[in-house]
Amino acid sequence: MLIRANHERKIEGGGCSWSYVETLEPADTYTITVPRKKGKEAREVTIQLRFEKLTIKSPQYKKLENIDMYALTATEVDGPKEESINWKFLTTIPIHNPEDAKRMIVYYKSRWGIEVFFKILKSRCNIESTQFKFGNRFKACIAVSAIVAWRVMMLTFLGRNIPGLKASIMFESFERKGIYVEFLKLQNHHQIWIRFYSGTLTNVSSA
């Protein structure tokens, strides 16, 4: 389990979780890429990692046992005040060294890709609006839609990161013909098709 946990937790030995972790020396400092999001470009971020195994005390009004968790913070160095990173995590996965801590950051960052996948599944494949009489048909629809969402996600990624990649590398002839039929429905479809057929996945994405 790996969760964001911004609220302080009382710990064994006195004090609170994040106040204590902040007193520790950084275990490592390194650079990560924060993906772009609406209104903001991707950026390189230098973060400091601190981690410690803590015993978190149960609230007094609940008859629960104390639990051992690993606390991890990732704090941006000299970042812009309005968007500076200050991530706080609790995890049941052991963190014994900086490499373990970095792996937690990788796990957390992968959530962005998962969110994009489900956004495509819902907004482009309209999976939430589908209705079937039998469950097996719905399962088949989800399976096909998941493949479509993955393909769209991959094409968008390639278009942004390898803008010179030819469309013919990713699309078979029959697929390009199908896309052409759809392009005919768009305004300025002749210009769009010329860009697509002679050009790149970037143009497909922008179209």
UniProtKB/TrEMBL annotation:
Listed name of the protein = Transposase, IS4-like family protein
State the Gene Ontology terms under molecular function.
DNA binding; transposase activity
Instruction: List the SUPFAM superfamilies hit by this protein, alphabetically.
Output: Ribonuclease H-like
Gene Ontology biological process terms in this record: DNA transposition
InterPro entries referenced in this protein's UniProt entry, alphabetically: RNaseH-like_sf, Tn5p-like, Transposase_11
**Domain Transposase IS4-like positions:** 65-148
Q: At the top level of its lineage, which domain of life is listed?
A: Bacteria
